[in-house]
Known about the structure:
- Helix content is 33%, strand content 18%.
- The protein has 412 residues and is an alpha/beta fold.
- It has a ten-stranded mixed β-sheet, with helices on both faces. It has a two-stranded antiparallel ribbon with strand order 2-3. The chain has a two-stranded antiparallel ribbon with strand order 11-12.
Amino acid sequence: MKRRVVITGVGMITPVGSDTESTWTGLVAGKSGIGPITHFDDKEIPTQIAGEVKNFDPAAYIEQKEIKKMDRFIHLGIAASQMAMDSAKLTITPETAEHVGVMVGAGIGGLPAIERAYRSYMEKGFRRITPFFIPMSIINELSGHISMRYGAKGPNSCAVTACATGTHSIGDSFKIIQRGDADAMIAGGAESCICPLGVGGFNAMKALSTRNSEPERASRPFDLNRDGFVMGEGSGIVVLEELEFAKKRGATILAEVVGYGMSGDAYHITSPAPGGEGAARCMAMAIKDAGIAPAEVGYINAHGTSTKYGDELETMAIKTVFGDHASKVPVSSTKSMTGHLLGAAGGVEAVITVLSLLRGILPPTINLETPDPECDLDFVPNKARNQQVDVALSNSFGFGGTNATLVFRRFR
Length: 412
């Protein structure tokens, strides 16, 4: 019999809010976190907008002397992990340390640190490269910092699967606990690469919106007039525990993880497979893993990036998996408000999905003014909906054709 795995803690920091509750309140209100870029100034880059985390002081979470040894994605990940651990009220003891692990990834990691180090090298030579350059830029250091912070000596790793990173991290952690290799895992994703190379690189692919005059209206999944996605930054972390481990310590259970699917498109480095075939297989695998029927799913937090092919093919995939039920299940893209947090997206959206189940509120897809005729599902347009559902999906699909889906259920 498979071990049951539950969520006992959540934490997120996003462009919409500097902590879990302010983000949730903003999402329910349909608030956009998109605005002019302040992290750097390069007017030659066509995109001048992004979803930046506002009013974030890493010193609220990290000792001052340690801050300079980390890039911003690590700062954000540590902050969200603190929120999640506080939420879970989990204290790791010497007796439990080897049974608690960490899996928190990023899609790109310390790109700003790489930029800064290269600039120092080119301008002033090798001796001006900080000795912290490598540790502050490589992605698995975030899991390392979190494990050291809390004394988690169990499985320690990180997924690096582009936009699917956070979802893979949580799904892999779910399986680690389910098979008995850990009793608890701190899992999710973090990202912060709103820098010239990051924004410039996505611009070179013609992937980003250039609606600079209307930042709040730029991220518009499933809308006919979308012109690309909007980059964001942030972090989303959950604490997963084996059910009996959680109950024994009197933890408050927020939701249960019941299914996980992952697939590969084997098609193209950036474009989804025709018909959303890979995404459809991924959702179907997650539903099968959960042991439920598609008609039991009451809400889908879509990948929904605000790109033409991505939105249309995800719509097709949902229709393939859910058949007649597809028109009945509410689907929303919270990226309409947060922007696309890349490797952090799946972690943040897992937290949002858990809170949707817990609180009976489905966040909206804002800026859905002229629906794309190819995107004809119930996308919860523009206004949150009070609706209690028992089962929800969260989708993440990444460059390289890597797909991940999680299934959450209200705990009972």
